[in-house]
Design goal:
CATH topology of the largest domain in chain A: Aspartate Aminotransferase, domain 2
Distance between the termini of chain A: 36 Å
Structural class of chain A: alpha/beta
Number of strands of chain A: 17
Number of domains of chain A: 2
Radius of gyration of chain A: 22 Å
Strand content of chain A: 15-25%
Helix content of chain A: 40-55%
CATH architecture of chain B: Alpha-Beta Complex
Order of helices and strands of chain B: HHEEEHHH
CATH class of chain B: Alpha Beta
Shape of chain A: globular
Number of domains of chain B: 1
Strand order of the largest sheet of chain A: 4-10-9-8-7-5-6
Largest interface: A-B, 21 and 20 residues
Shape of chain B: globular
Oligomer: heterodimer
Distance between the termini of chain B: 47 Å
Largest sheet of chain A: 7 strands, mixed
Largest sheet of chain B: 3 strands, antiparallel
CATH architecture of the largest domain in chain A: 3-Layer(aba) Sandwich
CATH superfamily of the largest domain in chain A: Type I PLP-dependent aspartate aminotransferase-like (Major domain)
Strand content of chain B: 15-25%
Chain lengths: 406, 143
């Protein structure tokens, strides 16, 4: 990876607690390159207006910028049509949209919704709620000891009664990629739709929703160098057309009467209210930035870094890494002996190293791992081997600091 | 940022040699509290009789700050009246806001004064105290 990439992230060039910042929490949110910050600034300084309303010039500029960003998202994940991209607040909102609209209309008692115990809360609780309200049954695909899924278990779990299969493409804790394409094939063979949580995959690897043949795919802008507050839901056109909106108001209507109204066509029928225009513009700039570098290049960089991190971390006595021995992506989750992850994160922070500690919005997975919480280092295109070395030496200091607790 | 401000010897002592850790069989008030942001959890048992905290024990999982704070809290309130216990809890809240507070009744608590310099850790230190307040509230409701 070209070292100049790091230069493009202003936030990385500062000291934290007297040490140069090492940011290893990109799975929570990524940092933003100058190009994205400038795009948002430029939008507010030269284009800001409401979209799809004004006849004036600024109105057209804002609409072009907003709709241009939608085209970029569509191309980035290879959607067949731009109208299949609905802008949302993020992955959580996108998944909740599918749950509230599609799932409530299509699930009833006796139906099944299939997920895994590894899902982020945002791809678990919406389905729990749907199951409770419709009488559908929530089923879990079993996990292997290192966290991966066997397709034979998928075959056994998904049945003719399954209506929805919801799964993350990449786990935010275990650093592994699920065989979503194969799972989609099994789901379709049984007449179910598949909903893919793409929060952790979209920023880090090439995604092709047509090749995966997924029915829905959710993503967050802020994890892929874009601003917070913007994300997208991809859905196959026929499915989106069959769905009712869940938010009603301005922007999404075609004709409003006193007792009846009807909706705009896709994608706008799902975008009630003034949308997150500047966020979409920033997301578009983030996509340009990532594509300039190349998603394959980014994926390669992270997998090399993850392998190096796994190797270096394994040298530390008493450190346990969770998940597969060979990481698929740049996420390494671990515990340092009996030192609580909170304490680890605080000691690391004193050395300028930022990691995540806690349950990572995955309480059911923590229970499956039989831990209350873990520490997690996650890497992105701006990290390098020096960052890993700083992490390792800070962990060794932590061990010394807590003495016999390890 | 000085780590030693946070992890004082007294704190590490309570963490590694917790006081009042465990449970007891009695007609006690039990309070279960979680810290949903990090997964820390505490189960506090307090026995209140004649307006006095006769016994206090806890179990749970958490970081050095939350568990040492629980250990100190139970030590501090045992044998105190409910009013005294709440007064200590109030002083502890002031301590977390960075105010100067005396704990003549249980000086170990002063070791937690460094926590207020680590804003992300204040909720760790206050978990056990929130459980105490909840327990006393429940007891008052019963009476």
């Amino acid at each position: 990876m070209n070292p100049s990439i790091r230069e493009q992230f202003p936030i990385l060039h500062q000291e934290i607690n007297g040490h140069p910042l090492v940011y290893l929490d990109s799975a929570a949110t990524s940092q933003k390159p100058r190009a994205v910050i400038e795009a948002v600034k430029h939008y507010y300084e030269y284009e800001n207006s409401n979209v799809h309303r004004g006849v004036h010039t600024l109105g057209s500029r804002a609409t072009d910028a907003y709709e241009g960003a939608r085209e970029k998202v569509a191309k980035f994940i290879n959607a067949r049509r731009t109208q299949e991209i609905i802008f949302t607040r993020g992955t959580t909102t996108a998944l909740n949209l599918v749950a509230s609209s599609y799932a409530r209309a299509n699930c009833k008692e006796g139906d099944e919704i299939v997920i895994t115990q590894m899902e982020h809360h945002s791809n678990l609780i919406p389905w729990q709620q749907v199951a409770k309200e419709t009488g559908a049954t929530l089923k879990y695909i079993p996990l292997q000891p290192d966290g991966h899924i066997e397709l034979s278990d998928v075959e056994k779990t998904i049945t003719n009664n399954t209506k929805i299969v919801a799964i993350a493409y990449v786990s935010n804790v275990m650093g592994l990629i699920h065989p979503v394409k194969q799972i989609a094939e099994i789901a379709h063979r049984n007449g179910a739709v598949i909903v893919v949580d793409g929060a952790q995959s979209t920023p880090h690897m090439k995604v092709d929703v047509q090749d995966l043949d997924c029915d829905f795919y959710a993503l967050s802008g802020h994890k892929m160098c874009g601003p917070t507050g913007i994300g997208a839901l991809y859905g196959k056109k026929a499915l989106l057309e069959s769905m009712e909106p869940i938010e009603f108001g301005g922007e999404m209507i075609d004709d409003v009467g006193l007792y009846e109204s009807n909706w705009k066509e896709l994608p706008w029928k799902f975008e009630g209210g003034t949308p997150i225009i500047a966020g979409a513009v920033g997301l578009g700039a983030a996509i340009d930035f990532l594509e300039q570098i190349g998603m394959d290049e980014i994926a390669h960089h992270e997998s090399v870094l993850a392998a190096y991190a796994t190797e270096r971390l394994s040298e530390i006595d008493g450190l346990t890494i969770y998940g597969p021995a060979k990481r698929h992506v740049g996420v390494v989750t671990f515990n340092l002996g009996d030192v609580h992850p909170h304490d680890v994160a605080t000691v690391l922070d004193a050395s300028g190293v930022a990691i995540r500690a806690g349950h990572h919005c995955c309480q059911p997975l923590m229970r499956w791992l039989e831990v209350s919480s873990t520490a997690r280092a996650s890497f992105y295109l701006y990290n390098n081997e020096q960052d890993v070395d700083r992490l390792v030496s800070a962990l060794i200091q932590t061990k010394e600091y807590f003495g016999d607790a390890t | 940022m000085q780590l030693d401000d946070l992890y004082r010897r007294v704190i590490m002592d309570h963490y590694k040699n917790p006081r009042n850790r465990g449970t007891f069989d009695n007609d006690a008030v039990t309070v279960n509290l979680n810290n949903p942001t990090c997964g820390d959890r505490i189960s506090l048992q307090i026995l209140l009789k004649d307006g006095i905290v006769q016994e206090a024990k806890y179990t749970g999982e958490g970081c050095s700050i939350s568990m040492s704070s629980a250990s100190m809290m139970t030590e501090a309130v045992k044998g105190k009246t409910m009013e005294q216990a709440l007064d200590i809890a109030n002083r502890f809240s002031s301590l977390m806001k960075g105010e100067e507070v005396d704990f003549d009744d249980y000086e170990d608590l002063e070791a937690l004064s460094g926590v207020n310099k680590f804003p992300a850790r204040i909720k760790c230190a206050t978990l056990a105290w929130n459980a105490l307040r909840k327990g006393i509230d429940e007891e008052n409701k019963v009476q």
